[in-house]
Design brief:
Layout (H helix, E strand, L loop, with lengths): L2 E6 L7 H16 L3 E6 L5 H12 L5 H8 L1 H16 L4 E4 L6 E3 L8 E4 L2 H10 L2 E5 L2 E4 L4 E4 L5 H11 L4 E6 L20 E3 H9 L7 H10 L3 E5 L16 E4 L13 E17 L4 H11 L7 E3 L7 E9 L3 H10 L1 H4 L3 E14 L9 H11 L6 E5 L2 E7 L3 H11 L6
Parallel strand pairs: 1-2, 1-9, 2-6, 3-6, 9-11, 10-12
Antiparallel strand pairs: 4-5, 7-8, 11-12, 13-15, 13-16, 14-15, 16-18, 17-18
The structure holds adenosine-5'-diphosphate, aspartic acid (ASP) and magnesium ion.
Length: about 425
C-alpha cells in the first residue's frame, strides 16, 4: 500500500468519456489499496480559449483578472471527475487551489508555489479513504487573497508539489504519449522511449522546448527527490496490473540510472525564439551593459549571445535571442536606448528556431558538438548562433529547417529506434 499522485493532462480529460476513463484509472489504484490525490488540467483547448478571451476583452488586461479567468478550466474538470468517481462508489471531493491552500507568489500568470498544507488531504486519506481531486495550474497568493496561475503547463508542477506535500511515494504524470522520448515522437517517428532519465537531463529537455513536462515540475521533483513517472492515459485501465511495471519513463536521480552507452540523451527544439542583430556597434567597454541592462530591467530573458571580434578595433556586430513573445518589447527597448548603445542598424528575424542536443554524458566526451556542425552543414543548414554548456549545446537555425535538423541529429547520435 502506498500513496500516489496521479496527474492527467488536457487531452486525457478532454470530454466526459475521457474523464470516465480517468476515473477508471483512479479506481484501479484505489482498489489496489493506495491513497490517491489526482491533479487535473483543463479540458484540451480550454485554457487557450480562456487566454484568447482575455486578449479579446482587452489587449492590456489586468494579470490578476487574467488568472481569475484562466484558472476556471481546472475548476470544471476537478468537479466533473469528483462527480464521476462518486458515481462509481468512490469517496472523492474536489479541491481548488485556494481551498487547500496552495500558496504562491503574486507573480500572476507565472506564480511560484511557496507552500502547500497537505494536512487535511492526508487526514481524509486516513479517516475515510477519500480521493482528493485537485485543480492543477492554480493557487492563491496569501497576501492579496487573489487566485494565481503557475504558467502554461503548470498542472505538472501542481502535481509534483502536491506529491511533496503529502509525501507521496510517486507522482504519475498521465499524458497523451507513453513516456519521455529521445525527442518529440510527433516530429520524429523514430524517436525512442526512454525507460529512465536523470532529473538533470529532463530539466534541460524541458527548458529547451520539450513540453512533456513543465520545467518547474522537474526542479521540484529533483529538490524533493520524488520519482516522477510519465505514462499514457490511453492505456486501458483494466489491462494494467497495479503492481506491475507499465510502459513509461521514470525521472529519477542520476545514480539510479545504469550508465547508458549513449552520450546524448535527447534533442529538444523551440520555435518560440526571435533573433536581434545590432550592426556596427562600437567595440568599447560598457557596450554590452548598455544593451543587456535595459533588457534585464524590462524583464526580458536573453538567451543566446554572439559577439564578433572587430576587425578594425572600432565596430563589431552583436546577435542575441529573446523569447518570441518578448520580441516587440525587446526591439522597442533597444531602439529607445540607441543613442546610449550606438549602433548603425538593427536587423531581426522571427522565423528562427533553436535546436538543442542534451546529454549528461557530454561532460566526459569531447567533440560531440563538432560532429553536429558538420552534419548540419552537409544538409546545407546554416547556423546563426551557437551556445554550449556542460551537458548541452544549442544551435539557432532557420525555422523551416527545424524538423530536418532534429532528424539529422537524432540519427547522427544513434538515437533512432532499431
Ligand atoms: P498534457 O496535456 O498531458 O500536459 P502536453 O501536450 O503538455 O500534455 O505534453 C505532451 C506532449 O509533449 C506530447 O504529445 C508530445 O508531442 C510533446 N513532447 C515534446 N517532446 C517530447 C518528448 N521528448 N517526449 C515525449 N513527448 C514530447
Ligand atoms: N491548463 C493549463 C495549460 O493549458 C495547465 C496545464 O494543462 O498544465 O497550460
Ligand atoms: Mg502539459
Amino acid at each position: 500500500m502506498g500513496r500516489l499522485v496521479m496527474k492527467f493532462g488536457g487531452t486525457s480529460v478532454a470530454n466526459i468519456d475521457r474523464i470516465r476513463n480517468v476515473a477508471r484509472h483512479v479506481k484501479r489504484e484505489v482498489d489496489a489499496g493506495h491513497d490517491v490525490a489526482v491533479v487535473v488540467s483543463a479540458m484540451a483547448g480550454k485554457t487557450n480559449e480562456l487566454v484568447d478571451w482575455c486578449g479579446d476583452a482587452s489587449p492590456m488586461h489586468d494579470a490578476r483578472e487574467y488568472d481569475a479567468v484562466v484558472a476556471s478550466g481546472e475548476q470544471v474538470t476537478s468537479g466533473l471527475l469528483a462527480i464521476v468517481l462518486q458515481g462509481m462508489g468512490i469517496q472523492a471531493r474536489s479541491w481548488q487551489g485556494w481551498q487547500i491552500p496552495i500558496k504562491t507568489s503574486d507573480a500572476h500568470a507565472s506564480a511560484r508555489i511557496l507552500d502547500i498544507d497537505g494536512t487535511e488531504i492526508v487526514n481524509r486519506f486516513k479517516d475515510r479513504k477519500e480521493v482528493a481531486v485537485i485543480a492543477g495550474f492554480q493557487g492563491i497568493n496569501p497576501q492579496t487573497n487573489r487566485i494565481t496561475t503557475l504558467g502554461r503547463g503548470g498542472s505538472d508542477t501542481s502535481a509534483v508539489a502536491i506529491a511533496a506535500a503529502v509525501r507521496a511515494d510517486r507522482c504519475d504524470i498521465y499524458t497523451d504519449v507513453d513516456g519521455v522520448y529521445t525527442t518529440d515522437p510527433r516530429v520524429v517517428p523514430k524517436a525512442r522511449r526512454l525507460d529512465k532519465i536523470a532529473f538533470e537531463d529532463m530539466l534541460e529537455l524541458a527548458s529547451l522546448g520539450a513540453k512533456v513536462l513543465q520545467v518547474r515540475s522537474v526542479e521540484l521533483g529533483m529538490v524533493h527527490n520524488i520519482p516522477v513517472f510519465v505514462r499514457s492515459s490511453f492505456d486501458k485501465p483494466e489491462d494494467i496490473d497495479s503492481h506491475g511495471t507499465p510502459p513509461g519513463t521514470l525521472i529519477c536521480s542520476e545514480e539510479e540510472i545504469m550508465m547508458e552507452s549513449h552520450v546524448v540523451t535527447g534533442i529538444a527544439f523551440s520555435k518560440d525564439e526571435a533573433q536581434i542583430s545590432l550592426r556596427q556597434i562600437e567595440d568599447k567597454p560598457g557596450v554590452a551593459a548598455a544593451i543587456f541592462g535595459p533588457l534585464a530591467d524590462a524583464n526580458i530573458n536573453v538567451d543566446m549571445i554572439v559577439q564578433n571580434v572587430s576587425e578594425d578595433g572600432k565596430t563589431t556586430d552583436l546577435t542575441f535571442t529573446v523569447p518570441a513573445s518578448d520580441y516587440n518589447r525587446a526591439r522597442e527597448t533597444i531602439t529607445a536606448a540607441k543613442s546610449k548603445i550606438g549602433y548603425a542598424r538593427l536587423d531581426s528575424a522571427t522565423d528562427v528556431s533553436k535546436v538543442s542536443v542534451i546529454g549528461s554524458g557530454m561532460r566526459s566526451h569531447a567533440g560531440v558538438a563538432a560532429k553536429a556542425f558538420k552534419a548540419l552543414s552537409e544538409r546545407n543548414i546554416n547556423i546563426r548562433a551557437i551556445t554550449t554548456s556542460e551537458i548541452k549545446f544549442s544551435v539557432l537555425i532557420d525555422a523551416a529547417y527545424t524538423e530536418l535538423a532534429v532528424r539529422t541529429l537524432h540519427t547522427l547520435y544513434g538515437l533512432d529506434q532499431a
